[in-house]
Amino acid sequence: MAELTLEDGRLWYETHDPSRTRGQPLVFVHGGWLNGTAWNPQVEHFADDYRIVTLDVRGHGQTGATDADRYSIELFTDDLEALLSHLEIERPVLCGLSLGSMVVQEYLHRHAGAGTVPDSSSGADATSNGTAPAGAILGGAVRSMPPVDLPSGVKPFVSPGPALGTALSLTGPKTTFRSLLQSIRATTGQQWLSVDPEVRAAAMDAVGEVSRAEFRKVFDALVRYDPPELTGVDVPTLVVHGEQEAPQVKRQGAQIASAVADGRQVTLEKAGHLVNQDRPTAFNAVSEDFLHGLADGLAAR
Prior knowledge:
42% of the residues lie in helices and 15% in strands. The protein is of the alpha/beta class and 301 residues long. The protein has one domain: Rossmann fold (3-Layer(aba) Sandwich), CATH 3.40.50.1820. Strand 5, helix 3 (99-110) and strand 6 form a beta-alpha-beta unit.
């Protein structure tokens, strides 16, 4: 366990870096109202060969509350930038789940055009921007919340913010989150979050650890986010969804994969939104193939 001091709080993170490896950095950003343990199946699988970093985003897990009056995906991305700089990590593969996928997309947008490493024979510095990503893996990837394409000015009029505020004050985060899940299931006819009761229960426990105030700040950050265009992104990107994912979210995943210069989308059967936990073996396999492809591409340059 370690902490990075911020101007208005602290950021909890954990590294797994066996001295015998010093491998490619994999940096994991969890979903909304979860925490870094959401990536445990991947950490356990990749820790022997890769340099692993997990973190708890503001308002979540052991990071908990910070002094910021309001959160944003941009602020979460600032924190990620600060952490990678603090750890002196170069060319990471960024792995984002749900909310974390938004953070990674914002990061990719900031580093658009940085995915192609120049030929060293040209004399160019291939790592002039040390935190430029080498690749991205997005699980349960979503572009916006609600997951529909709306002009940013329209979002406040369709957001369930007022109703959510009332529910939070009366029932708390866990019951409020359960109500959100029930609404999604009524709309889609699917379990959505997870097809595995144990995974759903663990997610609900994580939500229950988030305070009312922090739950609301995170929710507002999700709803306010206006996703950037990704057409200038040339970082290889893998988008993975479960077949029980909401159709609107899967469409957004297809948009991500088609917008970046080198993107592909994979759907795993018998999995929901938390696809990395519902089908950990399959998720790890497609991720490993993707990582091997990255390594082969770099070696060929």
